[in-house]
Amino acid sequence: MTKSLQGRVALITGGASGIGRATALVFTRAGAEVSIADLNETAGEALLQEIREKGGKAVFETADVTRVADCKRVVDRVLREFGGIHILFNNVGIIRRASVTELSEEDWDRVMDVNVKSIFVMSRLVIPIMARAGGGAIINTASGWGLSGGSKAAVYCASKGAVVLLTKAMAVDHGPQNIRVNCICPGDTDTAMLRNEAEQLGEPTERFLAAAARRPLGRVGTPEEIAQAALYLASDASSFVTGTALVVDGGGLAGSI
Q1: How many Å apart are CA 133 and CA 147, to the nearest integer?
Q2: Residue of 15, 68, 95, 229 with fewest CB within 10 Å of its CB?
């Protein structure tokens, strides 16, 4: 899919690390101009420099995408720099490993805000831009736990289940505007967030990662593998795909070994 995004502009939330970072690199290699939004200014600026050194075009904005004003600032910057938005990757996400009785109200609200409200806020700003341009592609990061429950992950499962159905509802509403809306449901992926889960649960990291690898392919995924799925959904290769929850999990939901 070399240069499959040539001439397109992509906005990626949570774009400075993990899956977002890998996707920014994959998208720029495919020819896209990329806007990265993230709270981590140091990581964002480092990624921006890396992209530019490789000949790509990108901008970075420090932003809390649960806040309308921050999202508007990000979108306005993209329009000033690149003139449009063809791809929106609502990727930002956090996890709190706890049951309902263990969660604080503050943790519940923060996870739902980051994982769900950010999609609503950013999409509400970007969809009219895409519609005026004749269409676009929106990709939301859900999870395998948006399709199947997991232990000590109540608010995360709730939020990612909401992402799956929000994706489908948006696909129905905005298909007539030629806007495709899909989500990716990754399995455990080798990111800092996965290691943080071990810390939250008080488990040794290596034992936690070994348990995460118990799936038919026998390993956890890489950010680049999830990024390739995002590339497919952003490109014309998926031109008749909308409302889909694409599972990319090494067979984790298919069964265990």
Answers
A1: 33
A2: 68
